[in-house]
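Moderator note: this is an archived Q&A kept for reference. The question asked for a predicted structure of one protein chain; the sequence and the answer are reproduced below.
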Amino acid sequence: MKWDLNDIVLIPSEKSYVNSRSSCSCKYNKTMLPLMASPMDTVVSTDNYLEYISKKIMPCLPRGNYISRYRGKHFQSYGLQEIEYQLNSEDNNINYFYHHKNVLIDIANGHMAKLLPLIKEIKEKYPHIILMVGNIANPETFINLGMAGADYVRCSVGTGAGCTTAANVSINYPLGSLISECYELRKQYDLKTKIVADGGMKNYSDIIKALAIGADYVMIGSLFNKAIESAGFNYLWKIKINNNIAKTLWKWGFPVKKKYRGMSTKAVQRSWGKSKLVTAEGITKYQKIEYTLGHWIENFEDYLKSAMSYCNATTLEDFIGKAEYIFITDASRKRFEK
């Protein structure tokens, strides 16, 4: 039986020598949080990606959003056809791999065998590239991609708030088991590939548990979309409004909402210039703005540090994959869910 994040809780260490959460560091090298902003056009764009970087979050720009600055502080996303085209390009003026450090091969089905030789070719031709691939829902695929040379792998299919793949196609691997098993297999094969838990985080607790059981990063879409700074279009009732007006009205207490959509919707397919549209495996909805990005991050850091202090961990390296957890019943969870 496989399990999800809702099925567990973390338990404190028998003895914790951490006297205050303020002594815990929740950033890698004291610079970046273990968070990524999902490559969704209602989350990140060329207009707001610096907002994420300033909050120590790694943004992943959606396909079609191309920038050349801050090459080490964001991931640039490309589809499979773009990747294949660039590998055959000899013009360094237009070659993505020549100009960018962090590259994301952004495809829904990361289990395709053709990915493996592509990864090897990219790493051989452009050894400076940090490569992220995915998504996957099979621990063995994580190992295959890691052995081929992938530096990061996005783990999870069908769990995102804007994704209907699991509901309609029946493809999924419960996220708790997926993270945990990828973590154990990585140790077994002595790989350095990073685990990116991607999709379906409903609250701070989900993110903290994903890290605790082995994810190096957590990729977030829906929760960031609810921030006033997100790339989603703003609406007051059914009226579309610009960012400045939205910020002012939201501060005054008006119920401003953000558009949020999965990246396999037909609207996104049209925005990519596709003439033949396929059946969508995503949804569009409108979410009420709930916070600023800065306020959300302030809470996240405090909650993560608190969890680390309970688990006797002062660094992310001491916490990720090393915290103890137990399985609980639905009745147990209802006892503390507010």
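Archived answer notes: The first strand starts at residue 8 and ends at 10.
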